[in-house]
Design goal:
about 300 residues; alpha+beta; four-stranded parallel beta sheet; 9 helices; about 25% helix; kinase activity; Diacylglycerol/lipid_kinase; Diacylglycerol kinase family lipid kinase
Length: about 300
């Protein structure tokens, strides 16, 4: 059996060092399947971008061990490699949120199980988001409320309440949520309003808070799901918002979702965005575009 070269990028701090549990077995699985793995550990923020860019055209495949942030960095590096040379990618998810792993139904915090999934899988296409100036994202670019909920909710609350902790944290903050007057342009439509949240996603799970039906989301159709939440000015609006979200109504008065290949947000002043759960910069105008089937995933 001809061996295939494989670059394994490990974030040693993801999931509080969970890579130690199962990495050896995962490497054995990969080696037995014909891969010849080279393992590198990141030592600083952004290094995964550089490693993926350097190795994405030289190895037969890449895989990364870490959280969604690590995956986002690796994808950013791969997007700098010419498409015809871009290696397919495996993902071994570590940590607590793992929105991408939830969407892909990958085993979490179990590198050996993820390795078995990788070697048994044919490459599948995956859309990647582009925010301009070399900035990419894998599953979400968003502004406003709830974008930091999963990162500010205490670990103790997460363990005790699970996804309910995210929801409670969000509800507790509704009365003091920031809101932004926004012009939204997407595929021939223009919307304006006072929004507390705007999200551009390619995922069925965002921060463990918003869940979309698997049948509604295609990861390689060239389209984003664009979700908008209007500012609840009174208790009636708040109740209406909660009702629409709970009922999964995607065309409601307070909560709506549309599909689009590209979307432009225009604000009166700069608004901060999150990109795959990390700070994504501030903009008074930003165009977000879908790069269809830009990455091949081994999952």
């Amino acid at each position: 059996m001809e061996s295939k070269s494989l670059l394994v990028i490990v974030n040693p701090v993801a999931g509080r060092g969970m890579y130690r549990q199962g990495l050896g077995e995962a490497l054995h699985v990969l080696y037995s399947a014909g891969y010849k793995p080279t393992v590198v550990f990141t030592t600083r923020a952004g290094e995964a971008v550089e490693l993926a860019e350097e190795g994405g055209g030289r190895y037969d495949a890449l895989c990364c061990l870490g959280g969604d942030g690590t995956l986002s960095d690796v994808v950013t590096g791969l997007m700098r490699v010419p498409e015809e040379k871009r290696a397919p990618l495996g993902y071994f998810p570590l940590g607590t949120a793992n929105d991408v792993a939830t969407t892909l139904r990958l085993p979490k915090n179990d590198p050996a199980a993820a390795a078995r999934r990788m070697v048994e899988s044919a490459p599948r296409a995956w859309d990647v988001g582009y925010m301009g100036s070399g900035r990419y994202f894998t599953y979400v670019a968003a502004f406003g409320a709830f974008t930091d909920v999963s990162y500010e909710t205490s670990q103790q609350s997460k363990q005790a309440l699970g996804h309910l902790a995210y929801l409670l944290e969000g509800v507790n903050r509704l009365a003091k949520l920031p809101h932004y007057w926004t012009r939204v342009e997407l595929d021939g439509q223009t919307l304006e309003g006072d929004f507390i949240f705007g999200g551009v996603t390619n995922s069925t799970s965002v921060a463990g808070l918003v869940k979309l039906d698997q049948n509604l989301v295609s990861l390689d159709d060239g389209l984003f799901e664009v979700s908008l939440v209007r500012f609840p000015e009174n208790l009636a609006d708040m109740n209406k918002l909660m009702s629409e979200v709970a009922a999964h109504r995607y065309d409601g008065e307070m909560f709506s979702m549309r599909r689009s290949e590209r979307v432009r947000f225009i604000f009166p002043e700069a608004v901060p965005f999150t990109r795959d759960g990390e700070p994504g910069g501030s903009y008074d105008e930003i165009l977000i575009e879908n790069r269809r089937a830009a990455i091949k995933l081994l999952c």
